[in-house]
Amino acid sequence: MSQYMMANDNINTHILRELSIDGRISNIELAGRVGLSPSACLRRVQELERSGVITGYCARLDPVALGRGFIAFISVGLSVHTKSAQDTFEKAMISAPPVRECHNITGNAEYLLRVEVPDMAAYKNFHTEYLGALPNVASINTSVVLASPKCEPN
User: Rounded CA gap, 77 and 111, in Å?
Assistant: First the structure.
């Protein structure tokens, strides 16, 4: 069975949904939720791991409890569109602790960032002193998160 077929079977879809909600669920509980015997469920999970559909497990963190309750999405446009300029920008984002996600995107900007900081003052500092000081940054457009009524765990 191909990796695509393996991942898109209804039972596997249910397994993946349950694991994305709670990666620490016991195999016995998971098996009960998806309607399989524990041994069959374990075999499926192991195959999803082996085939690379499940790449790991992680803890979901509360940004507010961690002192990072100010969340913003920032689109960044570069003035130079070379591989070197992109590599330089990406390295800077990888090493910047407030940047939780960095995506190279299509559209009016080259990058979409998810930034988490304690408050507006910390965001202003990141925006002005770090992001705005990088070479080849031509535009910065910020959208502040007011609420997240739906946020997928992965």
Answer: 7
Question: Top-level CATH class of 70-144?
Answer: alpha beta
Tens digit of pLDDT for each residue in 28-61?
A: 999 999 999 999 999 999 999 999 999 999 888 8
Mark out the alpha helices in 9-104 (DSSP H runs). 10-21, 27-34, 38-50, 83-94
Q: Residue 62 and residue 126: Cα distance in Å, rounded?
A: 21
CA distance 62 to 152: 14
Q: Is residue 92 scored above 80 in pLDDT? A: yes
How confident is the prediction for the chain on average, in pLDDT? 92
Name every residue whose Cβ is closer than 8 Å to that of residue 16 and which is 6 or more positions away in sequence.
7, 48, 53, 54
Separation CA 143–CA 41 (nearest Å): 42
Q: In whole angstroms, what is the distance from residue 137 CA to residue 93 CA?
A: 12
Q: Where exactly are the structural domains of the chain?
A: 3-50, 70-144
Domain 3-50 carries which CATH code? 1.10.10.10
